[in-house]
């Protein structure tokens, strides 16, 4: 069998949701010879708020220092969560850590642009289970990519995700969002119960 030369682009962050989405992509999308690219976007004002550092417009030196620290942390969690999780038979992924503005349009644009540059077969993203601003921000990035990407978007839901979506584009065929396994099992059990009731003879 001829080895594949496809590119799998996976958006990652330091979360279990992202790690599970990564492993799903490896188990279900990866073909021998594929090149895995991991993309982590560091939003400028987002990490400034997270780490207590003012925006770049006010203190450039502090912001630059914080950005370098954020990059170092990203490099470490990418190694710990993703690179080390790969089977030895799969070559190490290419890692992209990209600085962006805070707005969701900029972050989403970075992901879509990188996918186009790499001619990726699609963008794999996790559906995060987070609250407040994090949920709003990450959800908005996902929506932006879904509506603007020329390539399929594969959204991997977490067990407690309320919804998921997928979009195909650019002639590609979307793999679709993954259905929750627990929900599938519940539906199967209900169907089996209906069959038993329908096959039970009347007394």
UniProtKB/TrEMBL annotation:
Residues 193-203 have a biased composition (Basic residues). Gene3D superfamilies: HUPs. It comes from the Eukaryota. SUPFAM superfamilies: Adenine nucleotide alpha hydrolases-like (SSF52402). Pfam families: Usp (PF00582). Residues 183-192 have a biased composition (Low complexity). Residues 155-203 are annotated as: Disordered. Residues 8-157 form the UspA domain. InterPro entries: Rossmann-like_a/b/a_fold, Universal_stress_UspA, UspA. This is UspA domain-containing protein.
């Amino acid at each position: 069998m001829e080895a594949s030369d496809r590119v799998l682009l996976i958006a990652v962050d330091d979360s279990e949701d992202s790690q599970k989405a990564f492993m799903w992509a490896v188990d279900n999308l990866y073909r021998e010879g594929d090149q895995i690219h991991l993309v982590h976007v560091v939003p400028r004002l987002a990490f400034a708020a997270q780490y207590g550092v003012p925006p770049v417009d006010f203190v450039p030196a502090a912001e630059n220092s914080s950005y370098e620290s954020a990059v170092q942390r990203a490099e470490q969690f990418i190694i710990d969560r993703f690179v080390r999780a790969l089977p030895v038979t799969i070559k190490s992924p290419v890692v992209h850590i990209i600085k962006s503005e805070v707005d969701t349009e900029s972050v989403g644009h970075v992901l879509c642009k990188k996918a186009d540059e790499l001619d990726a077969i699609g963008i794999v993203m996790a559906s995060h289970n987070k609250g407040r601003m994090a949920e709003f921000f990450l959800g908005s990035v996902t929506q932006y990519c879904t509506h603007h990407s020329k390539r399929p978007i594969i959204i991997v839901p977490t067990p407690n995700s309320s919804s998921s979506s997928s979009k195909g584009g650019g002639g590609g065929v979307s793999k679709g969002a993954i259905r929750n396994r627990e929900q599938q099992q519940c539906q199967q059990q209900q169907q089996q119960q209906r069959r038993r009731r329908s096959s039970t003879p009347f007394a």
